Amino acid sequence: MKIAFRNFLTTLRRYKLSSLLNIIGLTLAFTAFYIILVQVRWELTYNRTLDNSERIYLVETTDWYTPGQWQAWVCRPMVERLISSTSAVEAGGCTWSGFGPTVVLRENASKMGYDRFNNIYTGFISLPLLDVFDFKTVAGDVHDLKRAQSVIISRTTAEKLGVGIGDMIWCDTDQPSAENACEVVAVFEDFPANSLLSGCQVAMDLGDRCLDDPSEWSYNYFVRLHPGTDPRQVIEEWKKVYAEMYPGEANEEGVLETEPIRLSCIRDLYFEADGRVPCAQGSAVTTYSLLGIALLVIVLAFINFVNFFFALVPVRIRTVNTFKVFGASNAALRFSFVFEAVGLVFIALLLAWYLSFAIQSTELAGYISAPLALAANFPVLGLVLIVAVAMALVASLYPAWYITSFRPALVVKGSFAGTSGGRRLRLLLLGFQFTISMGLIIATGNILRQHNYMLRQEMGFDRRNLMAVQLSEKAALSYDALRDRLLTDPRVVDVTGAEGRLVSVNRMAWGRTYKERRISMQAYIVRWNFLRMMGIPVTDGRDFLESDEHKPTGMLICNEAARREYGFELGDEIGGFFGSDPLVGVCADFNFRPMQYGVVPFVFYVVPEEWSRNSNGRASQLLYLRYRPDADVEGVVDYLRQCIAEADPHLTPGEIQVRTFEEELGEEYAKERRLATVVGLFTLLSVAIALMGVFGIVLFEAQHRRREVAVRKVMGATTAEVLRLFNRRYLVLVGISFLIALPVSLWIINRWLSSFAFRAPFSVWIPLAALAVVLAVTVGTVTFCSWRTAGENPAEAVKSE
Question: Which of 147, 268, 278, 484 has the most C-beta neighbours closer than 10 Å?
Answer without folding.
Answer: 278
